[in-house]
Amino acid sequence: MPGLVSQIAGLRRRLALVPAPARASGEASNGEPVQVEMLVSGTWVDVTGYTLVRDDSGSIQIMSGIRDEGSQTEAGTCTLELDNRDGRFSPRNPSGPYYGAIGRNTPIRISVPDGNGGKSYRIWGEASEWAPNWDTSGSDVWTDLSANGILRRLAQGPAPERSVIYNAITDPPLTGLVAYWPCEDAADSRSVASALTSGSPMTISGTPTLAAYSGFGASDPLPVFTGGSLTGGVTRYDNSAVSQYQVRFLLSVPAAGLADSDTIARVRVSPTVVGEVEYLDIEYNDPPGGVGSFGGPGTISIVPYNSEESMLGYSGEESLTLDVRSRLLRVSIEVSNSGTALSVTLRVLDINTGITDSTTIGLSGTNVTRVASVALAPSTLNQSAGATGMAAGHVTVQTTVTSITDLGAAVQPSGETAGRRMQRLCAGAGIAFDWVGDLDDTVAMGAQSRQNLLAQLQECTLADGGLLYESRSGVGLGYRTRASLYNQDPVLTLDYTAGQLVQIPVPVEDDRYVQNKVTVTVGGASATYEETSGTLRTELPPAGVGEYGQEYTLNLGSSDAGTLKDQAAWRVHLGTVDEARFPQISVNLAHPSITPAMRRAILAMRLGDRIQITNPPAWLPPDTIDQLILGMSETITHFEHKVTFTCAPASPYSSIGVLDTAWSRIDTDGSELVANISSSATSIGVQPSAGADVLWTKDTADFPLDIRVGGEVMRVTAISDLVTDTFTRTASSGWGTSDSGFTWTASGGSATDYSVGSGVGAHLLATAGTSRRCILPTVISDFDFYVTITADQLATGAILTGSLITRYADADNFYSAQLQFTTSNTVLLVVFKRVNAVETTLGTYTMPGTTFVAGTQYRIRFKVQGPSLRAKVWLASDVETPEWQVSVTDGTLTGSQWVGVRSISGAGNTNVNPSIKYDDFQIVSPQTFTLTRSVNGVAKAHSAGADVRLATPTYLAL
C-alpha cells in the first residue's frame, strides 16, 4: 500500500523508537516531516505518501538561489522519487489515475511545518521531467521527478516582438481604443501600418523620413517630418453614446524649433451641422519679434476650424506656456461635451521631467462627433507645407478621456528605478512579484531593452546589484534590493563549539571573486576604477595580486562620469574583500542542538540574509564567521532535514553609510606603527604610511573605535598628538617639561638664554650668529609638526630667525623650516639642510603683502616623510592655509636623534638682546593611541611598520 512504510515510520517516531524527524522540521498534518503536493486537474493533491518510500531511504533534493561559484540566481530545482506501481505518475499511461492531468510543467510544491502552525514552502516549481523506472522483477516501479522554479521557463521565453510603448497601448488595449498607428515602420515602407486589425494604414504624402528618430527610449525609431506628412483614416465606430474622445501622440520638436504657424497635427471630425468644428489643429508659435496673437516662441496652440478652414470663434486661452523645444512630449487633444458647449483641451506631458501643461477652449453650439482622421505635419490652407524637423508617432484615438500619465513608466522607461521596472515587467507578464527593501531605492535604469523577460530582470539586477529570487509564497519572483543587504543584523547565529553544524565550514582562500580593476560602460561612455592600495591591489606580486580586470556594460539612466565611477568603485569594493569565504555552511534540523527558535529562523531565511558562526576553532582567524546567504540546497529524508547555505562574506555590505552619520568611520589612506610594540602595550605610536597624509580623528565623540593590526583587533579609547606644549608654566635656564611629559634639552649659548613665561618659550639671542636649540629625543625620522613664532624686535643689520628642525643629529646636521624676519621687515620661509656644517637652501617662500610688526605671531608647519619635505606659513590668527608653499625632495638625512626648534640671528645683526618666542608646539604625527588589547582574542607583539586600519570601516553606499 502506498505510504505504508512512511506510516510505520511515523508510528515508530511517536513511540520514540527511532530518531524523531519532528526534530527536523516538525510533523505535517499528514504525519510526515514534509508535504509534497501536485496540482492535478486544478486541485492540489497531497502525494507525500508516494514519496520517501523506496527502501525507506528515499530523499527529496531542493536547490535554490545562486549555486557555489555562480554569479546569478538560477532556477530552483527539485528531485524526488515517486511510487509508480499503479502508473499514476506515468503521464502517458491511459490506465493511470492521473492520465491527462499531469505532464510538462505540472505545478509542484513542497513544504515543511514552519514551527508556527503553518507551512514553510521550500519550493514552488513546475515538473520538467518525468522518468519512469523499474527493476527487472517489476515489483519496484517508480518515477524520478524533476521540477524547476519559474526561472527555467522564463529563460526559454521569446524576446518581445514590439516596443515597450506598443505593448503598453495594445496589451491590454487602452480603454476605448478605436485607432492606433505606432509609426515604427521600416525606412522603406510605403505606408504606416495600423496596430489594430480593424484599422487602416496611414498614407504617406511627400517625403517624411521613416525610422529616423530614436530619442524615445520606449519606442522603435519614429519618422522625422522633412517635407511630408502622414494621414490615417479612423474606421467608423458607433458614437451614439460617446460624449468625449481624445487623440494622443509622441512629439519631439528640435532645439531650433519650427516655423511660425506650422501645423503639427490635425484631427478631422465629422460635424453634424454645417459650420460646426471640423478640424482641430495643433500649431507651432514663433511670432516675429517674439510677440504674436497666440503664444510666445516655442509654444503650441489648439486652433479649431470649420469645413472651409475658417477659424471658429471661441473663448478661453488657446496656447500653452511651456516651451516645447528640445523636449520629449506626449501630446493630447481631449474633447468632451460641456452642457450645450464643447470643451477642447490641449495637454502635454514632458515624459522626462513629468512636467505637464494644458489649455482649454470652449466652443458653443456644437457636440462631440466621430473622429474621421488624424494627420501629422499636414499641409493646410494656411500652410502650404506641414511642420519640418519634428519627430512624432504612436498616434492613438480613444472614445474616452483618461489621465495623460495612463501609460506610466512605459511611455519613458529611462529613469525608472530597477525595482519598479522589475515590478512592472512581472505585472505585465502576469507573474506574482514580491520584494525585500525599497524598490524606489534602486538605481535608475536606461531605456528598456528588447530582450526576453528574464534577461530584462537580470539586466535590472546587474545594474542595482541586488538578488533576484523565486518566491516561496507561490509561483512567482521577487527581488532583494542592494540597499536591503546593508548593515543587517544576523538572522541566524550558530555556535561552532555547540555542534550546531552538520559539517565543518571549510574556508576558501582563492581568487574566484577577485576584481580589482573594473570598467563600467553605459551608452558608449566608460569609466574605470582601480584598487591601488591594500593586499589585493593591482600591483604585481608580492606587492599586490596583479590586475583582475572586469568589464560591465550596464543599462543605466545616466552615463555621467561620476555615476560610472561610483558603479565601478562599488564593484571593486565587492571584489577586493581580503578575507576567506565560506562557500558552504550546513545545518541539520534534526540535531538536538537546533532549538525551535533556531529551526524557525532557518526555515524563514531568505537570499541575502546574514548568518554568523561564533567561536571558530583556534586554527582559524578568531573573528566571528560572518556571511551572506546566496543560495540554499536541502535534503529531506524520513529522519533529517539538512540545509546547506551557499555563502559569501558579509563584510562588503556591513558598515555601509554616508559621511554625515554619527557612527560613520572612514579609514585613512594608510597608517603604520611607528615602533615595535609588545603584546601588552596600551599606548602606541601611529603615523601615515608612505604616500599617505590623512591623520586619525582626535574628537572625543568618535571614540571608542576598533583598529586591526596584524590580525589583532584593538579598541582605541583616545588619540592625541605625540607632543603638545602650550608653555603655560614658568621656567628659567631651560624650557622644562612639555604638556605631554617630554623634557626639553637646551643647546647652544648659555643657560640664561632659555626661559618660559607669559605663555611662550623664549630664546634670547644675546650673541649674533650663535644658534639656540630646544630639542626632544627621538628615534623617529618622519614628523608632521607645528609651532607659532615671533620676534620681539624688528631686525637690524641682519635677519632674526626661528625654525622647526628634525632629523637632528647635532648642531651641524639637520633639516630646518626656518622663518626669517628680514631687515626690510618681510617674512620669508626657508627650507634648508645643514650637513657637516654646510647649509644648502632647498626652497623658499616670501609671504606676499606682509610687513612684519614686532610681536606678530606666525604659524609654521613642517612635514618630513621619507625624502619629501613640505612647509607652509600663515598668520597665526588666521586659519591654516591649505597649500604647501615649499615642497622639495632630498634624501641626504635619513636618521634621527632629536626634533625641536632652533633660533639664530644672522651675522652682522645689531639688535640688542632680541628674543625669538615660541608657542603651541605640536607634533601631530606620529599620533599616540590609547587602547585596550585583544578585543578579538588575539594578543601579540607587532613590529614597526605594521599596517594599522579600522577593523570595520564604513563604506559609502552606491
Automatic annotation (TrEMBL):
It comes from the Bacteria. This is Tip attachment protein J domain-containing protein. It comes from Streptomyces bangladeshensis.
